[in-house]
Amino acid sequence: MEIALQAGGLPVCPGTAEKGPHILSFKVAIVGRPNVGKSTLFNALTSAEVFAADLLFATLDSTLRRLELPQCEPLVLVDTVGFVRNLPHELVAAFRSTLEEVRSASLLLHVVDSARDDQRALMVQQVNGVLEEIGAGDIPQIEVMNKIDLTDGVPRRSAGEAGGPPRVWLSARGGEGIDLLRDAVGEQFAEGVSHQRWHLPRCDGRLRAHVFRVAKVRHEHFDPDGGWQVEFDVRRRELGQLEPLLAAAATDARPAAESG
What is the sign, positive or negative, of the torsion defined by CA atoms of 251, 253, 256, 260? Predict the structure, then answer.
């Protein structure tokens, strides 16, 4: 039996016992202001043919592709709508799928127009403000400083400013630095992944939704008495996010086993 999905792609607790795999991949979402090169970067990373133009809202829906990296299992890469404040009401519905995909991502590639040095900090601040508003402010980021072909042309990796996210400087159009970004993304998932198996005597919808948001669920099973068994891979930093929810259910939740 298929597991029911609610808005945003999160599974809801069924009323009857169910058993079977629900395998997901870690999701990486590309975010940023309009016209910074998000779709061009998406094409460069996946060899896809997504329409890319210097137009406001050239992408009106989220697009998903498989991303193969040597350091880790395949990921899902998501191209999204450009983030703006005070979005016109008639476009809110078109943005809904983007917001859902971003909230369920394990990593954000925050694309910035590095050629606009005078406005760069403001643009980053605006996008981060929108991420906070939609509940995605705590998701780890890599800042992708795009369009170096219009500046010094030197691809490189660098630390973020004032303790901010790490940066990769590249040209999505020309391809310079794409390999550096692929390495940076792969490193995020190659280290610190924990394999978890948990058995809860009841289906806690909030906890289950959080597991599906931050982890790659390999298998789950619902006992006839309402118990829930789940097996998943999760990065250790996301496992830390689960701990408060697990602690709240400490009298009920108990790990079946753990490795990794």
Answer: negative
Quick one: DSSP state of residue 247?
H
The residue that leads in pLDDT, 246 or 1, is 246
**Which residues of the chain form CATH 3.30.70.240?**
193-259
pTM beyond 0.85: the answer is no
* Tens-digit pLDDT profile for residues 200-259: 777 777 788 878 877 888 888 888 877 788 888 888 777 877 777 766 664 554 555 554
Say which residue, 206 or 33, is predicted with more confidence.
Answer: 33
Residue 256 CA to its chain's centroid (Å): 28
- The correct answer on CATH 3.30.70.240 for the domain covering 193-259 is yes
The CATH 3.40.50.300 domain(s) of the chain lie at 27-190
CATH number for the domain formed by residue range(s) 27-190? 3.40.50.300
Tokens of 7: 């808005």
The closest of 63, 9, 6, 11 to 219, measured between CA atoms, is 11
